[in-house]
Design brief:
The chain is mainly alpha-helical. It has two domains: 86 residues, no CATH class; 94 residues, no CATH class. The chain has six helices and two strands; from the N terminus they run αββααααα. A two-stranded antiparallel ribbon has the order 1-2. β1 and β2 form a beta hairpin. α5 packs across α6. The longest helix is centred in the middle third of the chain and has 24 residues.
């Protein structure tokens, strides 16, 4: 049963690995003219003079009636620009400010739609994937653990080939396989913790 659960967890890992790319790490570029404009770093030539800025608590926009404060917009802007710009009010022009608010709005609007349109099982699966993704990002795996797992795998493959009187297949180097191995070990740690703390009974 444990092996089956590990396999299922591996499938979850594969499914969420494609979702884990953080769009915030991408370079900020202008979108095509037909698309919603993105924040463009090329235009962030902020005035050196002190420009009047609203207080952090000021409401700078609303999303479906929900207030977005300047503090929230500043934090998102700092994240999107990796600290190169931190003041929403100093973005050049309403178009750029609206583009940033549109980016902030998408996850909120998607969450509203998801809540309206997903059934109970789909919501449960989505929450499970999100939790697994978050847990994977904080689960520590050392280089030593990864190297041992790699060596054990190499040994097992060679022994299996020897028993079948076959030549062992060409395997990736540790550095080539390291990332995947560390992800798999993190997955196994999480699975082990879940089974240890859960109450699973066969009847």
């Amino acid at each position: 049963m444990k092996k089956n659960l590990v396999g299922a967890g591996a499938a979850i890992l594969i499914s969420i690995s494609g979702l884990s790319a953080d769009t915030l790490k991408n370079s900020l570029m202008s979108a095509d003219k037909d698309d919603t404009p993105m924040v463009n770093l090329d235009n962030l030539k902020l005035d050196k003079k002190e420009k009047e800025s609203r207080p952090d608590s000021a409401v700078v926009a609303t999303i479906n009636g929900q207030n977005i404060t300047k503090e929230q917009a500043d934090q998102y802007l700092a994240l999107r620009t990796q600290g190169r710009a931190t003041n929403f009010d100093k973005l050049p022009g309403d178009e750029q400010r609206l583009a940033l608010i549109n980016e902030m709005a998408v996850p909120n609007l998607a969450a509203i739609k998801a809540n309206e349109e997903l059934n109970a099982e789909e919501k449960k699966a989505a929450i499970s994937r999100f939790w697994m993704q978050k847990k994977l990002s904080t689960t520590k795996v050392t280089d030593e653990e990864a190297k041992k797992a790699y060596d054990d795998l190499i040994k097992a493959v060679k022994e299996a080939a020897k028993k079948q009187s076959k030549e062992a297949p060409k395997l990736p180097t540790f550095e080539e396989a390291k990332r995947e191995i560390m992800l798999q070990l993190a997955q196994e740690k999480i699975t082990k913790e879940l089974l240890k703390n859960g109450k699973v009974k066969l009847k």
